[in-house]
Amino acid sequence: MTYAIQAEGLVKRFGETRALDGVSLAVPQGRVLGVLGPNGAGKTTTVRVLATLIRPDEGRATVGGHDVVKEGHQVRRLIGLTGQYAGVDEMLTGTENLVLIGRLLGLSRAGAKARAAELLRRFELWDSRDRAAKTFSGGMRRRLDLAASLVGHPSILYLDEPTTGLDPRSRNGLWEMVRGLADDGVTVLLTTQYLEEADQLADEIVVIDHGRVIAEGTSDQLKAQTSGQVLELRPVRGQEVDKAALVVAELLGAVPEVNQGLLSVPLADPAAMPAVVRALDDAGVLVGELSLRKASLDEVFFALTGHRAEDDQASSDSGKEEAAV
Amino acid sequence: MTAVTSAPQAALLPRKVTPLTALRNVLTLAWRGLVQIKHNPMELVDLSIQPIMFVLLFAYVFGPSISGSVAAYLPIVIPGIIAQNALFASMSTGFGLNVDVTKGVFDRFRSLPIARTAPLLGRILADVVKQAWSMLIVLVVGIAIGFRVETGVVGVLGAFLLLLAFTLMFAWITVLVGLTASDPEKVQVFGFTAIFPLTFLSNAFVLPAEGSPGWLKTFMTDINPVSQLTSALRGLLVGGPVLEHAVVALTWGGAIAAVFIPLCLRAFRRRV
Prior knowledge:
By secondary structure, chain A is an alpha/beta fold. Chain A contains 12 helices and 14 strands.
């Protein structure tokens, strides 16, 4: 199998903190790898190492077969980078930002303009092409940033939290664009703290927390690997929720989560389901809704890390620190 | 397990950075530093208004009491304002660098297959153009109100080159501030709290009087690099000794560069 990106045992220390504590990952050519983790987990640091922006203290990584430390220039010929904080010059217009990159990559003036026009049309920025980027909305800025990373036709693209802070409509638009790139055969490494995003876009997912890879696989594999399935049930009479929870907890040994009258509990063995139904019947609880479903990535993440992915979102400061170091 | 060696598109990008491509990179990034003036004419006003204001305020408010008349004060104050302006203009190097680093623009450049030093050199080149502009403004406004260049074109050119050489070395202080400050405003605060007193505790605007304390007088005339720079500029524009002052000013510049370039490189490695 050909790997576009391979990293083995990456360690990066910032003072006392081990931002990366032995990260290994591999992305086959033309696939989308989702790197999932909360703020401060080491996602941005991983991308920065793979984009030759920082050197790892230990471990090694190759991108397109080139060592990121020893052959940085060769790596930079292959990659495109879209950062968490859109790296566009706010004083320049959309066109100028893209022409600038094109010129830096050695295109002629006319060639750079043509490439800029092509990308501005593709990313629906054509009408705003002559406005300074500082007047752009968040979604437009991200699209311009993505366009800027594509000027040189990269075969490997890093997207560092491409949709953080975007409204759902802009986010869906960006997802479509990433899917289009993947269809064109571009290898994508995408970091995200949104489980849904990894689920939607990534062929494979690695989950990192505290600078370590704690799980990897396809979305389905991850779901199966951890709590397996989830039993959900809703008592018809609202006042019986507590009673039902008690019965379920006693039988399965796990306390169900209650959310607006809906009980959900991880179920390792699907065969236990009839027993739950019988026990509730014996207790006189009338069940209105009953279903067995695969655990969501959210629950998988919780099972793997012991905390919710969303826990860390409120403190977006820690993410900024990570980006700034 | 074979690795991907090269995608077809990447074959178009240069395998190596030749000196010629490096130069092109620097020029492209300098263009980027200047083209924004087109959309933001206020920046040109910013670059011009302070020199104009300082020339007029100093000449008409302080001139008569310091030198007896505006005309007699101009040969003293015009070179001084040129020196002060140059130091302030060098702040824009640090300021712009800080904006690039905090906004992620620097990361974008560093992820491209271009000369590693181009982002820094391109910015400095753009700032050199801005320096020339602000020196020109001071001269033009000065000449309009009666300043006379006594030495001719060679003197003006020499003054510009000296100014450039000094500020290119001095700018490393602002580069360090630009790389270490957490936001652009802090860079500006530094500019005002460090450069303002430095230029005023010099002979740029007044020749120290007999009544000043001795230590202050020594600092103002002999030690402060701004004074040495100003004295050399006076020599180059209106006549007088040049070499002795220029040598001291450039030695100061060299010392600043020798200390701050390694610090900048260290900060650069830590930051990225």
